[in-house]
Amino acid sequence: MKRIAYLCLSGGWGGLEMNQLRNAQQMQNRGHSVLLIANSETPIANAAAQANLPIYIVRQHPKHYQWLFAIKLTRYLNDGGFEHLFLRNNRELSIAASVHFFSRGKVSVHYFMEMALGGKRTQFYRTLRYALLSTWVCPLPYLQAQALQQTKIAAHKVKEIPSGLLFNAETHLSKEEARSRLQWPLDQKLILVVGRIDPKKRQGFVWDCFSQRTNNDEILVFVGESTPDEPSFYHLALQEKIKKHPKSKAVIWAGFQQNMPLIYQAADLVIMAADHETVGMVTLEALQNNCPVLGVNNGGSKEIIELFGGGLCFELNGASSLSNKIDQILAGDFHHLNKPYFEQHFDFNHVCALVETELLGLEAPIFQ
Asked: H/E element holding 34?
């Protein structure tokens, strides 16, 4: 058994934060002693409390060069006997690297890359910071290549470990059952766009394409809300734009949903329109629930679809490309998911076993 601290100072509630929490829960289930380090009244802190995960509440924002906070955190981890610190937010790299330095190497720091680098990161101060990391963990092969090509981190520290998923066939419903529970139309094609309502997610681009389609048997469903505590001008403007259009009745604003498997099981396809979605957790979760994915021809969704099937890719700014690929998927004209390979690769038991052997230094996983 190892003592592992999970650092997450973010106030958001997206794939990054959810992955951090899920990983902590699974490692706790395997017998490890885990601790979540979070700000009070954040979504991840509230979710951890509900999941009965131990929490260390702090008052910090994920900014660079917080020496005093890093020293205080190091003392807390040392006193608690924590040997490992896991993080996913690149804004927390400086704090985590400082913890490794101030602990004199007693606390190993493992960065799980869920945010793209966006260019060369070879500056001296970054190279020094990365040198203090014990491992740099990439969930997909293209991110591993990116880390090796765009930084000067030692190659032996860069590992590939996928994001974990829980598979439970008993929870799967038919499309008709799922729609009945949601009170959604049974005789229409349901096209989902999942994620926070934000310009980077490009819901407006999807709407512009959808509004030009002449099919009368399609419903566009937006699942998500604006980022908490941030202006929702984009969200409001998009709602006003859609209200004025004749196809406004073919749009459902579903808001934030707790039971996402039910949502995916009700849909005919999910569109991932964001430019360079680093990991594409929505893509993984949609495929997990047998829902085809139409993703931009770059980033994590592209890699997942090319490796495992389950959907198609469209050109980033190609409205006609998006519309044509929607038709293809609805007609079943795509490479279907290689389900056995997909489940074997992303199963949480497999993922946790890799964490135990590759990061925690266990000779063998606690159990498969």
From this structure: strand 33-39
Residue pair 223/235 in contact (Cβ under 8 Å)? The answer is: no
Report the b/e string of 15-40 with b at 16+ CB within 10 A: bbbbbbbbbbbbbbebebbbbbbbbe
In Å, the largest CA–CA distance within the chain is 65
- The CA dihedral of 348, 352, 358, 362, to the nearest 10 degrees, is -150
Q: Pull the structure tokens for residue 289.
A: 């629930």
Structure-token pair, residue 70: 């890093």
Global pTM value: 0.90
Cα within 13 Å of Cα(2), Cβ side: 22
Range 191-207 average pLDDT: 94
**E strand spans, 213-337:** 218-223, 251-255, 269-272, 293-296, 311-314
57-71, 161-175, 256-270: lowest mean pLDDT where? 57-71
| Phi and psi angles of residue 253, each rounded to the nearest 5 degrees, phi first | -100, 100
pLDDT of res. 64: 57
Average pLDDT of the chain is: 93
Which residue in the block uniquely carries the two structure tokens 């973010």? 10
CA 94 – CA 62 distance, rounded (Å): 9
Per the CB < 8 A criterion, the answer to whether 196 and 14 are in contact is yes
Pairing type for strands 84-87 and 3-7 reads parallel
